[in-house]
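Interim report to the steering committee. The following record documents the input for MBL fold metallo-hydrolase (300 residues).
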Amino acid sequence: MSLVFDSHFAPHYGEAVDIAPNVKRITVNNPSPFTFHGTNSYLIGKDTLALIDPGPIDDAHQAALMRAIAGRRVSHIFVSHTHRDHSPLATVMKEELGAVVVAEGPHRPARALHTGEVNLLDASGDTEFVPDIAVPDDALIEGDGWALRAIHTPGHTANHVVFALEGTDILFSADHVMAWATSIVAPPDGSMSDYMASLDRLLHRHDCVYFPGHGGPVTKPKTFVRGLKAHRKMRERAILERVKAGDRTIPDMVRVIYRETDPRLHGAAALSVLAHIEDLVERGRVQTNGNPAIDGIYWV
């Protein structure tokens, strides 16, 4: 199944864009190869609001959020995961608004660090974040005229969660599923086996549109999620082929598998290959000389 990405997106920095009844999107002006045009925050409700993913510490974005809130009460702030482009402003906005912060939990890796391993992603994690409510899987948080169901979707991070707007066909998919690119799954923060299981979980749902953490909506989610699964399986096959062809390090594999990818993303690609190899080792498809690592040597 082919995977077709959609890179058409107008961020409208500083503006609140109506995307559904009583749902507004405000995009942070923090574009990068990893954030696309920027991080999306969402406001839900009419009189009393919910805020999803306030974003990074950014004065202009905070001011844009406050303009969109327009003096109304914000009862809850929902955080999908603790990367620094999504969660740090939650603490500031909590103090400003008197809201309750809801998330799966604090930042943590998907697995323990191996002996001598350094977490290359430490700088991207908001390790100071602590929610007021650690929301259980499938829990329903109700507000004034809205309700959001938390669906745990580990993979991109261990604490990643998406939120379904009850009574609608809308899912706020954060960084788990995005229309413009695949999600980065990078150990030790992320886990490929968790990510694939989380995709399967979404396939059992019947949402009709995803509003992601970056870029525009996913309008045919089941088809797209199946495409994401097929894409990951294709990457897995490519890695196995490179191992059989004689490649013994991740950089060797990346140079071939990702030869048409922006070189600025090769570091992230290497971590994605590592995630696939960890999953292959767990399933007994590949053996490694010690724990899998960016500079490890592999054989089948």
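Residues 235-299 form one domain. The committee is asked to note this result when reviewing the revised timeline.
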